[in-house]
């Protein structure tokens, strides 16, 4: 796993419950369309929450698809309903809401299935959205969702900001179950960024997730940290994401 630090202070499936996703927003490429990335917002946000930032990135050849999460009760918030990609009791729950994760990962995959064959595909997100992005990376490696249904998307890049990997308990065994899964895990580029003073998703949780993925075989994972950064983003981090995506996708 590649570590770097900044010193700046600053397929379809049936689920057991109905899940209704919100509105999807799209930021079209200004240049030649060479890549499409689904960007997933954080808990309590919506798809448009990140479009203004994405529109300003120096990545003219990327199309951004920004869906909105369903409104659901979240156990960690005392059952309060809010937009969330899955339910959770704790960020350190190794089991978690597998149904909710599969539903959201399936929704993301469905958004990408209609993209042109010559376009590279990726998933990115912030906070809980980053968790779905990382979970999608594990689905790509194993070739299936948590429920065993086939995962249909060939991901070329995954970006996670201030997030964590849910349902990680058996990841090493699942990736190590076949040579093909191990090969896909090792070759998938992942950028995982986290602030050292994050008071929502603690730094140690993000770091543990990165270490878990790397030890499970995701060897093309870069874990970048930012001193003084809490649970939000800064220009330095956004610039790092842009540079990494440009190098990874040629975007």
Automatic annotation (TrEMBL):
Pfam families assigned to the protein according to its UniProt record, in alphabetical order: Abhydrolase_2
Single GO term (MF): hydrolase activity
SUPFAM superfamilies: alpha/beta-Hydrolases
Occurrences of domain Phospholipase/carboxylesterase/thioesterase (ranges): 24-248
Annotated PANTHER family: ALPHA/BETA-HYDROLASES SUPERFAMILY PROTEIN
Protein name, as recorded: Phospholipase/carboxylesterase/thioesterase domain-containing protein
Annotated organism of origin: Deinandra increscens subsp. villosa
Biological classification of the source: Eukaryota, Viridiplantae, Streptophyta, Embryophyta, Tracheophyta
